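Customer escalation, tier 2.

The customer says the design service returned an amino acid string that "doesn't look like it belongs to this structure." They asked us to rerun it and document both sides in this ticket. The original structure tokens are below, unchanged.
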């Protein structure tokens, strides 16, 4: 988090107001994180169960679904995981494309392919 904040501070003058501030922050944060992973040659990002705070503790089936989603997301590549997490946060394709530096059309293709991949992974868990 400190590295992200430092990079945001260093690059604040480069923000050109052509996109939302939140989109620019996401892009900087994602680039810092991917750069860190490349430097450390880490191939996966460990997600915490707390990343999925939609479960209120009352519905056992819902918790099981979230656990399966958690496992399936861990099986994705870093780029696929980033796209799906932004998609799950209900970001628009245009915003996702700006964050990841790919075209909006490519975002749509990636989301559809990754959804199919997630479906296969989840079906592999017996769901």
């Amino acid at each position: 988090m400190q590295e992200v904040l430092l990079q945001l501070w260093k690059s604040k003058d480069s923000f050109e107001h052509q996109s939302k501030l939140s989109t620019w922050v996401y892009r900087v944060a994602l680039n810092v994180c991917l750069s860190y992973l490349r430097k450390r040659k880490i191939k996966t990002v460990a997600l915490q169960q707390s990343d999925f705070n939609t479960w209120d503790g009352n519905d056992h089936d819902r918790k099981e679904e979230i656990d399966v989603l958690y496992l399936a997301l861990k099986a994705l590549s870093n780029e696929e995981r980033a796209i799906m997490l932004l998609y799950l946060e209900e970001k628009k394709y245009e915003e996702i494309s700006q964050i990841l530096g790919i075209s909006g059309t490519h975002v749509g293709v990636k989301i559809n392919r990754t959804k199919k991949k997630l479906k296969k992974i989840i079906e592999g868990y017996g769901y």
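Tier 2 assessment: The sequence is consistent with the input. The two ends are 35 Å apart (CA to CA). Confidence is low (pLDDT under 50) at residues 42-47, 51-55. Sent an explanation to the customer and offered a walkthrough call.
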